[in-house]
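tool_call predict_complex ligand=NAP
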Amino acid sequence: MILLTGSTGFIGARVLRALSEKNLEVRCLVRKPASLEKPNITYITGDVLDYDSLVRATEGIDTVYYFIHMMGNQPKGEQKRFDILDRLAINNTVKACKQNGVKRIIHLTGMRNPYEKLSHHLESRKEVEEIIKNSGIGYTIFRASVIIGRGGAAFDILDTAVRKFPIIPVFNWEKTQVQPIYIDDVIRYLVECLDRKETLNRCFDIGCSQIFTYKELIQQYAEQLGLKRRFIAVPGSWNRLSAAVLGKFSPVNPNVVYWLVESLQNNMVCEPNDLKKIFGFEPLSFSESIRKLEEK
Ligand SMILES: NC(=O)c1ccc[n+]([C@@H]2O[C@H](COP(=O)([O-])OP(=O)(O)OC[C@H]3O[C@@H](n4cnc5c(N)ncnc54)[C@H](OP(=O)(O)O)[C@@H]3O)[C@@H](O)[C@H]2O)c1
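tool_result ok
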């Protein structure tokens, strides 16, 4: 049986749909009680910050999907401590998994360049990944940059910037490189890895075959939407101001916007891997991803 964490989130909700279509037995850990049970989908109320609830949730479980981050929806006053909460949450999860003999943790995290000084967000994502890898439990970890899908924080911020602002200031992230990926391709990796033994105890960077600077990404997206956008280069980072403006106009939680804006300084380019050989498909190009999204 599978335990799915984060099933109300952008990634978790889509993975749940895909697992349900495969008729797999899934137990979802949710903070608020849910009533939408199906024969193969059950819900257990709990919190990754509450160890006892995790022990109950992992009973009889083989595989745990870990799709949690603490940057957003936390009790008032706790948001600034997201890295401490994320550490506590994954330590609780690993400990409960060990207690109940869970065999594998499947996790999606943020891509990063191992040689760069990382933002707070990416440093914390790296720490969570290391805790999983060093736990002694089997794992499969995927690392993504901007995921092209509505409801994804990074994509919704990009979408807001392009649709709402005819003139876009370009700060010191102008040349930062990024390799985006379409949401359906991410879900396919996350679900199909269940049956691919070769993915056990491995980490994979996932992205389309194209590398963009953030400025090129914004430009391409605007062109595809048929929007004319002008850019003005402004020296400096202006993270707080950018986050305040984007937090006001985008649907994304303002705390999440702030930490993601800070991460714009970090390059997110895939290390080469053998994913095509293992999974037999290549992710869609950026323009194809946008076309698919606009069709939905
Ligand atoms: N979105 C992207 O573009 C992107 C890109 C790269 C990597 N990732 C990675 O993908 C993973 C999932 O991200 P996401 O975008 O799906 O995030 P999300 O939409 O914000 O969802 C986060 C999930 O975590 C749950 N959660 C938060 N605190 C919890 C707690 N204390 N106990 C139990 N559940 C808790 C939330 O449940 P509630 O409904 O109770 O709040 C929600 O279901 C993360 O590891 C992230 O780093 C995402």
